[in-house]
Specification:
mainly beta; SH3 type barrels; 2 domains; eleven-stranded mixed beta sheet; 11 strands; about 40% strand; globular
Length: about 200
């Protein structure tokens, strides 16, 4: 069953349909993700560009969301986290298994993307401004520049700067959230994104 996706890149957001039942399968299984009935929303504020098809390289996807939400591990402990990834500030909660000790963990994380729930996506230059909120998202852990969390979760993000924050707080996981196109001043749709300077508007869903 096809799913609707929003793929955030360094220069914009691609919004459309992917012929896969699960977003994780599309991200981890293919070198490129084919988006059909697509619209590309540049971060420079220019008009959205409709496309019949849009092929996005997996390595160019910084953040991905879809209407196929994922709840995460059943017995997970959730940690408040904020990530700087490309032109975006992504905040939410990331799961670890009970008893996880970053100082003693031996097994390295597998896969390119990590799950974040109760997600808020904003532009780095305007992180308190317009934002996209979704129940869950996948973040490319290899392109994260900075991690702020209440546990040393830099373990999951090779090369990222790690900032340790205060106490852990739980948040509800089922909030009703708006689609991602809100980021770019009222332009419906989204696609991979580029370095904004000054901060552009995010595409609105």
């Amino acid at each position: 069953m096809p799913i609707r996706v929003e793929l955030y890149g360094a220069a914009g957001v691609a919004i459309g349909i992917v012929a896969r039942p699960r977003l994780r399968d599309a991200l981890e299984g293919d070198r490129e993700v084919l988006v059909e009935s697509a619209a590309w929303h540049p971060l420079d504020g220019s008009a959205a560009q409709p496309r019949r098809e849009l092929s996005v390289a997996g390595d160019d996807i910084l953040v991905a969301i879809s209407d196929d939400t994922e709840d995460g591990p059943v017995h997970a402990q959730w940690h408040d986290i904020a990530l700087d990834v490309g032109p975006y500030r992504v905040s939410g909660q990331m799961p670890t298994m009970p008893g996880f000790d970053p100082g003693r963990a031996l097994a390295r994380p597998t896969g390119e993307f990590v799950l974040i729930r109760d997600v808020r996506i904003a532009l780095l230059g305007d992180s308190d401004g317009p934002a996209i909120e979704q129940r869950s998202a996948f973040v490319n852990r290899y392109v994260v520049d900075r991690v702020a969390a209440d546990l040393m979760l830099g373990f999951f993000f090779p090369g990222a700067e790690m900032v340790l924050t205060g106490g852990h707080q739980q948040s509800s996981a089922g909030a009703s959230l708006t689609p991602a196109a809100t980021l770019a001043s009222g332009a419906p749709g989204s696609a991979p994104v580029a370095d904004p300077s000054p901060a552009p508007a995010l595409p609105a869903s």
